[in-house]
Amino acid sequence: MASETIVLLSSREIEKMRQAGRFAAELLDHLETMVKPGVSTLELNDEAERWTQSRGAKSGPLGYHGFPKSICTSVNEVVCHGIPNAKQILKEGDIINIDVTPILDGYYGDTSKTFFVGTPSPMAKKLVEVTQKCLDVGIAEVKPGAKIGDIGAAIQEYAEAQGFSVVRDFVGHGVSNIFHTAPQVPHYGTRGKGKRLRPGMVFTIEPMINEGTWEVEVLADQWTALTKDRKLSAQFEHTVAVTQDGVEILTLSRKVAKV
Hints:
Elements: H1 11-32, H2 41-54, E1 58-59, E2 72-75, E3 78-80, E4 95-100, E5 102-104, E6 107-108, E7 111-116, H3 122-139, H4 148-161, E8 165-166, E9 172-174, E10 181-185, E11 202-205, E12 208-210, E13 216-218, E14 225-227, E15 233-235, E16 238-242, E17 247-249
Antiparallel strand pairs: 1-5, 2-4, 3-14, 4-7, 5-6, 8-12, 9-10, 11-16, 12-15, 13-14, 16-17
EC number: 3.4.11.18
Binding site for a divalent metal cation 2: 110, 173, 206, 237
Cofactor: Co(2+); Zn(2+); Mn(2+); Fe(2+)
């Protein structure tokens, strides 16, 4: 991470983040319409790139530290940073997290959702629903004067109470006209610990919740992270801003919310 200094964004910068976040939410909604058996993850990637370029924006992941594609597509036991490819064909019962980060007017809109491919198994359904709730309970902790640790503690308490585990190796992060910056936002932890939240802070909350162990392995491609036990993993992500009296979700879909 380039700097431990937390930059508070101005109202003008937060408006830029709001526009980028709205753009990211629209991209994710668009890609959701393609999620069905028989579609390759490369097709999702190529449509994301086409859609983004056609609207005058760029794909933040493309070329970032050498990442080769425009979005991340993480299927079943892939925790995060799955690389889209032509051979990976979605099949009935899969779950897929699609993580998008378009850059609009220099600012990054970062969001992800886990989608069902056809009809999920009961375990997959429960895991995805719990993971979405984990994001909700984490966001509910965000307000001026709260601590970073409050977010992770709420997520960990809920996930573990449901019989699932929280990935430790990847965390939320500050985001603005820089993709990843301070603060780091763990999805586990202790209430009352960590940096104090202040208006103008903008960061992602992106819990990765596993069916089995929280431990992960990264493949030789240096990106694809899998659950160590090869059981399912799900993730949801929003970019949020700390406001004077609470929190604003900058990547909220304007569609009726659904998993």
